[in-house]
Amino acid sequence: MTQELERKDKQEVEGQEQISPGRYFVPAVDIWEDEDGLLLRLDMPGVDPEHVAVELNDDALSLEGQVTLADYEGLSPAYTEYNVGHFQRRFTVPNSGRFDRDQVHARLTNGVLEVTLPRSEAAKPRRIAVASA
Amino acid sequence: MTLRSTNPFENLLRLQRDLERSVGSPILGLGGPTAVFPPINVFNDRDGVVIRAEVPGFAADQIEISAENQSLVLKGERPADTHSKSGSYHRRERQHGSFARSLALPHGLDVVKASAECRDGLLTIRIPKSEATKPKQIPVSAAA
Question: Can you give the pLDDT at residue A86?
């Protein structure tokens, strides 16, 4: 039994002004953590792999995707349920030294941005043997 | 719309404004915004109608489109992500599951010639006008 998808309205980025005008939207995110590290998945429909920017500066992780406007050339809107704009989201990664920043990896598939922050070797959990007396 | 300007910001602004203007114009049997997935935009172009839907995470083979009696049915399923290791979600906002949505097509479209493409999580369906509704030149012959 699968659950039915609901339509959620796209949310605009608020609280920080952009240099350039136009609307930015907040992509929905899943953040998963396991012993290997952090895995983020963000819905960015209409963004191709060439127009994504992922940056980790200290504890600030910033993710941005630009939609391709060429797809709208020659089209005149007749009926609209959603607006189109670039995507942007920022996270604070507390204690980001736990992750190996040289190994941060991003890839975009079918409009979903997947970012992995692998745990640095030093921060990986290890089993501590308990010596019996 | 024609995107003639070389300034990409201007183009984005114009597109956003144009889309804002046509919110809820009732066509295709769509009576204004509803909560049905996926969100759809409908455009006109020279050849006919272009329907676009945001379906992030869907591969082309996870979407099924059928046309029958002037209506178009879109179906799809996005399975939940699986993880091989044990861990936990800090945030879980993305949805998974299935959808089915049907649209009533206006007359004058040639559904048989419809084509669809799914790229970067964006589904685009193009339905051309039927030959009968295209403007035609009628030759006038001189009376013999």
Answer: 92
> For residues B49 and B90, what is the distance between their CA atoms, to the nearest angstrom?
42
Average pLDDT on B58-66 reads: 95
> What is the distance in angstroms between the Cα of B124 and the nearest Cα belonging to chain A?
10
Question: Which CATH number applies to B37-80+96-134?
Answer: 2.60.40.790
Q: Is A120 on the interface with B (CB under 8 A)?
A: no
Interface A:B, Cβ pairs < 8 A: 196
* pLDDT tens for each residue of A36-80: 999 999 999 999 999 999 999 989 999 999 998 888 888 988 888
Residue A50's closest chain B neighbor by CA? B120
Q: Does A32 touch chain B (CB under 8 A)?
A: yes
Please judge whether B37 and A7 are an interchain contact, meaning their C-beta atoms are less than 8 angstroms apart. yes
Q: What would the CATH number be for the domain defined by A35-68+83-124?
A: 2.60.40.790
Give SS3 for B8.
Answer: helix
Q: DSSP label at A74?
A: T
Which chain A residues in 5-24 lie under 8 Å from chain B, judged by CB atoms? 5-8, 10, 20-23
Mean pLDDT of chain A: 88
What ipTM was reported for this prediction? 0.83
Provide the residue type at A89 as one letter: R
| Residue spans per domain, chain A | 35-68+83-124
Cα separation, B122 vs A124, whole angstroms: 38
